[in-house]
Amino acid sequence: MDLHYWGSLSGDGCRLVAWLESRCVSILVGIGMQLPGSVARIWPERFTEAHTESFTTSGHYHGLYLIGLDWDGVDGEPISKLKLNLAHETLQEILQHFTRRIRGGESYFDPQRLWLNASLVPDSELGRMSPDDQDWGEYQSDDESSDEEVADPMEASSAGSAEPARQSKCKTGYSRAHKAAAPVPRP
């Protein structure tokens, strides 16, 4: 997933990143439901391109989220060329659906300040990346409707449930999970 953001790091930027990260799991759910035999994992950290200027000097943030895909097969059966082509089409549809849902989140997605694309990229074309160390500040939400704004039939709905204020440190949304994962190879 490719995220470009122009705006303030605190407040709206942090709110957007926390909201986006909370929706990423729907890609895994879609893949799991629609492609039996596939294995998908989200790398538990945001990345930036290694040569990208910092947000403070450029006023533009470019972040990347990686989802790795593999084929376990159904009943140990290898994937045929036909099934591989069908799986590719299904993955494209899942990513397009996700992108449309995110862009439909009017309370969070502002097309004047945000561009998002989810696409299939071979690992040989990823280029040099480094973990995102951008400090997005803290985000507190007491908005009970934030979970229902971009409803998706593939996601479990928590609509109507009253939740206390949620707090997320945007810098550590994915980073917390990353600390328990394998270390990122540094260039």
TrEMBL record:
Residue ranges, compositional bias (Acidic residues): 132-152
Keywords, comma-separated and alphabetical: ATP-binding, Nucleotide-binding, Transferase
InterPro entries in alphabetical order: NuclTrfase_I-like_C (IPR011068)
UniProt region (Disordered), positions on chain: 126-187
GO biological process entries: RNA 3'-end processing
Name recorded for this polypeptide: Uncharacterized protein
Organism, scientific name: Verticillium dahliae (strain VdLs.17 / ATCC MYA-4575 / FGSC 10137) (Verticillium wilt)
SUPFAM superfamilies (alphabetical): PAP/Archaeal CCA-adding enzyme, C-terminal domain (SSF55003)
MF annotations from Gene Ontology: ATP binding; nucleotidyltransferase activity; RNA binding
Top-rank lineage group of the source organism: Eukaryota
